[in-house]
Amino acid sequence: MKRGFEVNDLALRIATAAACVALCVVLSIALEWMNIDAPYLLFLSAIAGICALGGLSVAVWMVLFSTLGLWAVFIPPAGFAFPNVDDSVHIGVFIGACTFVCWIIDGLRRANAELSRDNVALGCKISVLLNRHKAR
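^ that's the sequence the OP posted. Answer follows.
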C-alpha cells in the first residue's frame, strides 16, 4: 500500500542527492589529478541514476546541487564568482542535457508504472474468467 507524502522522505531524498553530488565532486577531483578532465560526465551519470531510482523530484535537486558544485569547484576562478560567457554556456548545456535525460527517464518510469497497473488489472480479469470457467 502506498503511503502518503512525508517531509522526512523528501529530506532524506534531498540529503541523498547532496551526498551523491559530494561523491561526484571528490571523484572528479581525483580524476583531475590523473589528468582526466571530464567532471560533467560523472555528474550526468549520477543524475541519470538518481532519476531512475528516486524519481524526477530528487533529480531536480540533484541537477541544482550538481550545477552549484560544478560552478564552485570546477569553473575558474574557484568559488562562486560569476563565470565568463564560455563557462556560462557550458553550465547551460549541462542543465539542458540533464533536463532532457531526466525527462526521458521519467517518461519511461511513468510508462512502466502504467504497464504494471494494466498488467495487474489484466491478471485479475483472467483470474475471474478462469474461475468462471471452472465453475461450469
